[in-house]
């Protein structure tokens, strides 16, 4: 069996066994999902959810988070691994999202990956969990396929 054929078969089995895959991370906006995904590196989803419950109650969006100092952010997430690096990344990401994207999480992989602390895996988590439609985000039940995946042009607004 060829590699592509085998991969297609595995994806079909996954779709049948779990037709609505969802992340264990808790969030209520695309920004919060992005933050949780960045924080999940070298940490469990359970640990991240404990930290983000308090973090998002106090700082729900990029504007609120961008106002923090690096020391304040580090204090908020210090129970997670690599918290100093993550604090630096999140503050820079919050500021860039405010400056470049008007406070909205970008909907394209390349734009997401241009943000500090956001690599391919994090971008895939965000893209496979949320999708922009008519300027709003909704759950998405597909895996972001291929290395050049971007939302279809007719779906962007």
> pLDDT average, as an integer?
84
Structural class: mainly alpha
CATH topology heading: Endonuclease III, domain 1
- Tell me the strand percentage band: 5-15%
Shape: globular
Oligomeric nature of the chains: single chain
The total of helices stands at 8
Order of strands, main sheet, comes to: 1-2
Domain count, please report it: 1
Explain the overall architecture.
There is one protein chain. The chain is mostly helical and 157 residues long. The chain has a single domain (26-155), classed as Orthogonal Bundle (Endonuclease III, domain 1). It has 8 helices and 2 strands. The protein has helices at residues 3-17, 30-39, 45-58, 62-66, 70-77, 83-101, 109-113, 120-129, and strands at residues 130-133, 136-139. Strands 1-2 form a two-stranded antiparallel sheet. A hairpin with a 2-residue loop joins strand 1 (130-133) and strand 2. The longest helix has 19 residues, at 83-101. The protein is globular and about 55 Å long.
Write the layout of secondary structure elements.
Layout: H1 3-17, H2 30-39, H3 45-58, H4 62-66, H5 70-77, H6 83-101, H7 109-113, H8 120-129, E1 130-133, E2 136-139
Helix pairs in contact: 2-3, 2-8, 5-6
Compose a concise summary of this entry.
The chain has 157 residues and is mainly α. The protein is 55% helix and 5% strand. The protein has a single domain, classed as Hypothetical protein, domain 2 (Endonuclease III, domain 1, Orthogonal Bundle), CATH 1.10.340.30.
